[in-house]
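Let's sit down with a protein and look at its sequence and fold side by side. We need material for that, and I hope you will provide a protein of your own picking. Once you have written the record down, we can walk along the chain together.

***
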Amino acid sequence: MINKSENDIYKLIADILETDELTIKKSKKLSQIEEWDSLNHLNILIKLDVLFKNKVNSISEMGEADSVQKIIKLLKENKLIS
C-alpha cells in the first residue's frame, strides 16, 4: 500500500479544484463546490490513478463517485488508503 491518508486525498482534491481543504471536507457532493466541473472530476481521477500507480482506474465505481467521502470510501475498500 502507498502510504497516503485521507488528508492527502483532501489536499490533492483541494489543489486540483484550487480551493481550500476545509471547503472540500465540508462538502457533501462535489457539485456543491463552485470550482468542480466534469473536467476537474476527470483530473481528480487521473491524479489519483497516477498517485496510486494505475490502481484507481480498475475501480469501476470511481467514475460515479459524487463526493469526496465516496472517493475516500472506495480507496479504503480497495485498500489504497487506510
User: Anything to note?
Assistant: The chain has a mean pLDDT of 92.
